[in-house]
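# step 3/5: fold
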Amino acid sequence: MNSVRTLVKTHPTWHRAASAWALALLAASGQVHAQADLASHPGLLRDINAVRQQGCEGQPGKAAPLRENAALSAAAARLASGDRLDEAMKAARYRAVSGAQIILRGAGATLLTRASLGTSCSLLTQADLTEAGFHQHAAQTWIVVAAPFLPPGAAQANDVQSRVLALVNEARAKPRRCGTESFAATRPVRLNATLQATAAAHAADMARHNYFDHVGRDGSHVEDRASSSGYRWRRIGENIAAGHTQAEAAMQDWLSSPEHCANVMSPDYTEMGSAFAVNNSSSAGIYWVKVFGSTK
């Protein structure tokens, strides 16, 4: 939902993008009736990686090889017991950005091929998937493939902050249309330590207390938090995102949202601060905040 706030000093629009929650599992399930070599997981992994190199009919190949992951194999075993994919991954303590499951039925000496996979071939050849797990019972094998949740660590915070600043200024250097509003190229913004602290505090609070909102648990808005930090603002605005493990992905969502995009492109802003906070047990896993401002 869009939210517009007007104070004595005009504030830009703040918006929470619907696409910010990027952690939903691709819980697709294919039923593959294949005469596959199911006697060993290394053989099955070898065959899958060969298919990833070849690609499916009408789709390019050359996807990087999958590696076997013990937690995903534990998740596959739980699938065999009747768990849903998201339940199985949670029980195995494996956090994924995306994942899929395939069930193989039948046993024999024939290698697993893109032809025998049929419509499930496209699942196994998704380039973003990097890990796989397997469980076999009798003549049935469960395969789980996933892209693991790998957020940046605290030691990378300065590098990520610099990257977000660079992405913002790259965007501001070109004319851009944000929804129905057009923006000319404008001057770069610079980092501000107070706005950085404001962003970091809100990101940490959302991560610690498992919520996603411009409004803090204490009812504060970005202008309140900036003022409390000692920033004497003339204009202030905030972008938030959640679930993205890379600054580039968060930035893409911000530029796709008219209100977030307008914050990025506004010539009224001269400074910004950005931060992320990670909590693996929270709903989104990672929370991003950018605060833009200009002083009186």
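# step 4/5: annotate
The chain is about 35% helix and 25% strand.
# step 5/5: archive (pending)
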